[in-house]
Amino acid sequence: MIRNTLDSLYKGAGWLAALFLSAICLLVVCQVVFNVVDRLSTLITGTAIGLTIPSYSDFTGFFLAAASFLALTYTMRSGHHIRVTLIRSNLPHWMQEILEGWCLLFASATSAYFTYYTANLVYESYIYHDLSSGMIAIPIWIPQASMLIGLALLTISLSDDLLCHICGKPVSYNKNLEEFAQSINE
Amino acid sequence: MSEITIPLCLLGLLFLLLGSGIWVAFSLLGVGIIGMMVFTDAPVGNVLATTVWGASNSWALAALPLFIWMGEILFRSKLSENMFEGLAPWLTHLPGRLLHVNIFGCGIFAAVSGSSAATAATIGKMSIPELTQRGYPEKMILGTLAGSATLGLLIPPSIILIVYGVATEQSIARLFIAGLLPGVLLVTLFVGYVIIWSLLNKEQIPMEENNLSFMEKVRGTKRLIPVILLIGGVLGSIYTGIASPTDAAAVGVVLALLLSRATGSLCKETFIEGLLGATRTSCMIAFILAGAAFLTVAMGFTGIPKSLATWIGTMDLSPYALLGALTIFFVVLGCFLDGISVVVLTTSVIMPMVQAAGIDPLWFGIFVVIVVEMSQITPPVGFNLFVIQGLTGINILRVAHAALPFFLLLLTALAIITVVPEVVTLLPNMMGS
Amino acid sequence: TSWDMPTPYPDATFHTQNIALFAEDVKKATDGKLVIKLHTAGSLFKHPEIKNAVRGGQVPIGEFFMSLLGNENPIFAADSQPFLATNYDDAKKLWNAQKPIVAKLLDKQGLMPLFSVAWPPQGLYTQKAINRVGDIKGIKFRTYNATSEKLANKLGAAPTQVEVPDIPQAFSTGRVAAMITSPSTGANSKAWDFVEDFTDIQAWLPKNIVVINKRAFRRLDKETQTALLQAGAKAELRGWEMSKKETETKIQVMKDNGMNIIQPSPELMSGFKVIGNEIVTEWEKEAGPAGTELLSTYRK
Ligand code: NA
Ligand code: NA
């Protein structure tokens, strides 16, 4: 039950990230199409219309942050965050197990710390009503919330894996990475 | 002497964390957090959140995931296969054969993208599977890719030249033009190296079929049309002023989608796979970039890069010795900071020294870019290495080993532009008058 | 005590040079009890983050472009309203009227203003000569915030968003054909590479401001506080003089590099003044009673 809820949460954030990535593309393409229309209008009528998407550079930046942070857990669980495993792979199995626990502990702790202070950042932006400085004033806590959600999910997922590791169950990323390696070799 | 001991401690810590298998981004964050806690009294957690947020929501950075997405689409289409099929007959007589596709592919793509990570990701996504399948030696595939992808920074447009130009008040247009000839020089060096290596190791380079007549070759070249359309479209959108260099990445994605649709290799599954693949890879890079940004700020708070640079300044070196010292300084910092961060952190101390020594700041910009390129392929923190490990699963240390000859070639290029500065200054000077 | 101070602009900018002198003054006046370590060119915090970093106590002091906060409260953007204050004397008067309100607004965020220095008057950069407002109609005009967008629309120009590093490329590829910015930015980005004409319309004099975190300030002893405030006052005076000199030198640099330095025709200026008045009236409505108060103090 909990397992399923968590897994769909992780996956959902990944899909949302992909959506934001396509939104960046869509937004920029719209602006480029506007530029083309403007160029044509200059050629035909001699004056440009001045079609712009207001604050489009701000929005692209915010979408990028959302895409990056919301994808953190999905990327972690599919084994795509990179690490150096060369030294470790030469150690005996029991030492590898301990090291894996250390890695998960370190990452969960760092992630939790990071999440806590990000919550603090979002809270401050919220109570001070911080606004973006572009043409459209956006309350900055809204895009910042994507960073908070992404990091919070990552912390949960890492603790999840840490727990699995302690209980002797396989961790998410290795399993998925093996599948990935197979798909490459096919 | 703390200028030396503190960075050494932090470097040691970084190696320890990375070596124990902690994810790269977490290692960078960890070193930053611990370094700041020990050596400064700033509120670490708040600085962490502010810095990472500031570094992550950047319009200029948005080109990176878009180019990565474009690479994913091309990889799943017949375009990359067609490109190799079309080029293969022409390269049969050149020692090294299709390895040169990596070099020229990166060189051309560098004219489209401003970063070396995007160049490595896009070209690598297509070329690594093709070249591996054709039996080229892994070491040369990885080496040529890691090395040539650094051209993304030198051939305009270039993110780092923009950063340097803004920080030092040099004209960005002139810097861009100054990067052209050194870019050609590097391509020549890389091609030359591949030719010599291939002549010495003939048995390792697979044969490409070569019983085609000239007309058949020309007909085969038709397969290159989609790729030419793609590159032409992206470059065209920049130079006709329809798209800024950042926007051009989105043009690339749309063109790639249209072309793979036209060649019948786009369906719902490949579209979604490509999008998810791009989401993962760009997230991996963005997280490392965030870690690097924080480590940079942490270093800024400790004041280490500045005191190191000042320390070099006190040695009263001749211009050549100064350049030598700065090269070593940049390479060492480049081992554990991202190249752009090195420039941001140290220009305010280094530029006065450089100008006092009578070195042209425009020339020095290109010098810096080449040094930063070198830092992209040195472990542990080298973004081309990260991208290639992400693409292949091959360990960064092995990739770094494969890239070592190209590191040395970059060093050679540095020596050449130092002895013959006209390689850099010729074109911008023509533009000035 | 040692204070880290992030600033957004490069070392060669006169604002940064003024702040470097300010840091020296502070060190001297306090006998090294307070040392200000500069982190220039956004090397510590990026420009949009500097204010919040000072507010959160991550750094005790910092500099930023004041009208960057214009969305938070229009008062911060008073100095960026076109053709309201168009020379150094008026700009100084405007700052005197603006200062108490700005101080009150910053106080709510635990910040206090230390000093503020104006940029040189903003001029018009174009690829062909502009003699009347109508000449700007239909050409692509660089915008970067709400005010510049409004100005472009009122001029009948086509607003185009261009980020600073992208300016030369945007001009040379025709994505943009006109912009309003200071002679400093023009000379530093080697504007002669991509535009012909600089029309000295002196549209407005925006300011940079240096702010202090109040908690950090209170932690200093009385003598250090006084020394800091005195050094700030001195830096403000010096900064405005540096700004005037900057205007002359940078216009000369552009002239020396072959740009046409044009005095605007009366016809052009009167056209601009009309549009300026409309924008200022709208701004006053947005800013509410504080805006009216500011304008009446300024116009006294
Ligand atoms: Na490039
Ligand atoms: Na490196």
UniProtKB/TrEMBL annotation, chain A:
Membrane topology summary: Multi-pass membrane protein
The lineage is: Bacteria, Pseudomonadati, Thermodesulfobacteriota, Desulfobulbia, Desulfobulbales
Gene Ontology BP term (one):
C4-dicarboxylate transport
An example Gene Ontology CC term for this record = plasma membrane
Cell membrane as a keyword? yes
Provide the family line: Belongs to the TRAP transporter small permease family.
The alphabetical list of record keywords is: Cell inner membrane, Cell membrane, Membrane, Transmembrane, Transmembrane helix, Transport
The organism's place on the tree of life at top rank: Bacteria
Please give the organism.
Desulfotalea psychrophila (strain LSv54 / DSM 12343)
Report the GO molecular function annotations: transmembrane transporter activity
The record's annotation in InterPro entries points to:
DctQ, TRAP_DctQ
Q: Name one Pfam family in it.
A: DctQ
The UniProt transmembrane annotation reads 12-34, 59-77, 98-116, 136-156
Q: What is this protein called?
A: Probable DctQ (C4-dicarboxylate permease, small subunit)
Domain (Tripartite ATP-independent periplasmic transporters DctQ component) spans 52-166
**Location(s) in or outside the cell:** Cell inner membrane
Query: Where is this chain primarily localised?
Result: membrane
From TrEMBL, chain B:
An example molecular function term from Gene Ontology annotations:
transmembrane transporter activity
InterPro entries noted in UniProt? DctM, TRAP_DctM
Q: Provide the protein's localization.
A: Cell inner membrane
Pfam families for this protein: DctM
- Residues forming the TRAP C4-dicarboxylate transport system permease DctM subunit domain are 11-422
Provide this UniProt record's keywords sorted from A to Z.
Cell inner membrane, Cell membrane, Membrane, Transmembrane, Transmembrane helix
Keyword Membrane part of the UniProt annotation: yes
Q: Which residues cross the membrane?
A: 12-39, 59-75, 141-166, 172-200, 248-267, 279-301, 321-350, 403-427
What is the membrane topology noted in the UniProt record heading this document? Answer: Multi-pass membrane protein
State a GO cellular component annotated for this protein.
plasma membrane
Name assigned to this protein? Probable DctM (C4-dicarboxylate permease, large subunit)
